[in-house]
Each structure stands twice: as C-alpha cells, then as structure tokens.
Amino acid sequence: MSAITQNLPRVAFEEVEIASPPLHARPIGKARPTLSHIRILQGIAILLVVYAHAVIPGHRFTGGLEVFDRFVRACCVPLFICLSGFLYRYTNGGKKAAGFFLKERVLRLLVPYFCLSSLAFVVKASLGSAASRPLPYSWASYAHQLLYPWDNAVIFFWFIPTLTLICVVSLCIDKWLIQKRPAALFPLLAVLAALSSYAGINQITYPVRFFNLYGALNYLFYFWAGFALCRYEVRILSAFRASWKAIPLLAAAITLAIAAPNADHAMALLEASLGCLAMLVITKKLAERRDWPALMEVGDLSYQIYLLSWFFQTMPILLFSHFVSSSQYACALMSLLLGVAGPISVVYAVRRWAPFARPLIGLR
Asked: Does pTM surpass 0.85?
C-alpha cells in the first residue's frame, strides 16, 4: 500500500461522502437517529486530507509536519472508504435495485470526475512547463489522464474511479453472498485482507493501471470493514465504553505510521485498521458530550471539499511561497484555509445562483 501513497494520503471520501447519500439521510425502513459522530468524523477526515495536500508542489513536509503527515497518509484514504462502507450498510444500499444504485454512483462520482478533470486538464495544459506536472495539450493526453487516474491533471482524483469500482464490486458481493449468507462476512474480510496485502506488495500493482483496478482491490477490504463496523457498532462501542480504551489503539497506529512510513504487507493494513477504529470510537465519545456543528457542516460537504480543493490550493500556494513566504508552516496554514473555505464558498454560490451546476460538483 505504501508505494501507492508515497505522494498522497493513503486515504480518500461522505462517500465520504464520496459514495454514499447525505450523512443525515435516514436508512430505508426503520428510522434511526442522525449519525452525528460519522458526520464529525468525516469533517475531521477531510481536514486531514486537505492538510496532506497543503504541501508546496514538488516538496515534502519536514520536521513536525512530516511526523503528523505520516499518520495522515497511513489512515485517511482507508478511513474515507471505511466510512463509505459504513454508510452503505446504514442506508441499506444493497437493498436498492442494481440499476438505480449504479446510476446514483455514476451521477455522484463519475460525472464530477469527468467534468472537473476536464477543467483541470485545460488549466494545467495551458500552463505548460510552469505546471508542477506538465501535460501535453492533446486528445491522447486528455483521454489518458481520464482512464489512468494517477496521471490525472488532479493527481488525487485517483480516489474517485477507485471508489466507483469498489462500490460496483461490493454491490455484487452483497447481493450474491452477504444477503444470502450473513455469516460469510468475517471469512470475506479475511480473504479481502489477504488480497489487500498482496495487492499492496506485488509490483504488478504499480504503476497503477487502467482505471486503478488494482488500487480498488487494495482498498476493498476497508469498505467491508466499514460495513462490519456498522453492523456491530453497538457491540464495538460497548467494548470501548471508557473512552481511554481507544487511546492505545490510536497510539499504536501513530507509532506504526511514524516508525514504518513505507510499511508493506499486513503492517500497512494493521496501522490503518487501528487508526480507523480508534478515530471512530473517539469521535463517538466526543459526539456524546457536545454538538460540533462546524465539523458536521464540513463533514456534510466533505466530498465537495475534496473535489474542489485542488483549484484553491495548488496555484495559490505556489504564488504564496514564491512572493510572500517559503516557510512550510505558513504555506501549509494558508493552503489549508483556502482548501476548505474555497470549496465551501463555491457550494453556497452554486446553491444560491447556479443550481443547474449542482451535479458537476456532486451535490444532490
């Protein structure tokens, strides 16, 4: 896994919102309370992702920023995919007609991917050699960056087709296996963990190939781990009734991420799993003690922030580092603020003045 994520957080989406309905949506059938802790966790997760993208292009974090960045890269993409699996199970996604479910995923994921990738391609190709990753202005280059997501004009858009594939495969697994044999969930997790470890170490997975097929295999485990967390959430939280019990899990994940930044095999899977479980438990405890409306609002817009943050981070941080300050701390702070505030401003502008553009940024 680590080879995939040397330059991007190992996490990812809502759907993180990337693949699921709004977090405040009720599941099909019996009504259940709003998932405030999941909305908060999504808010935290997207802030971590934007932080990971706040580095000056062509550079790497150093010092204290690098230490924190290692944990972010170890857990963020698995966390987003885990939340997608959680929400899939919570909203009974597998009970929907296959055609309806796939149509939702295409509109929610691939339409914004195509539209925003096209816009970013025009911007980056127009910059020529001034871009950190120059792209030739040709139809072949345009098609290539869409079909091979890690060569996309926005490199971290690789996550979107990856999650699309995971959703399609997971729907098949759910309808053909889990709904008929619920007890097969844990053997399935064991098989997927082994496949994830294999995909994470076998060199045929790198560079990522067409539509990131191997990347989807690598991360499929986390989707079903989230499914299991939703099914057994009450039991899991009862085992961590005292909030301090989650601290050792989080400490272990952080220690592994710092000590083994390029971990392979089961080690990468272990550190991500520990981190996701610890953050879920801790966030649940925080949600029980008080409301976090700002974080929940950020969580509800996490997909839009993910889609749009590149446009507010890359060029501004280059200009800021060149003309104002090259301090990585100042650049990271400025980029983090722009990467969150910019997309949120676009969302409110689209809702008010351009509702026809809602599908282009993944809004329902």
From this structure: yes
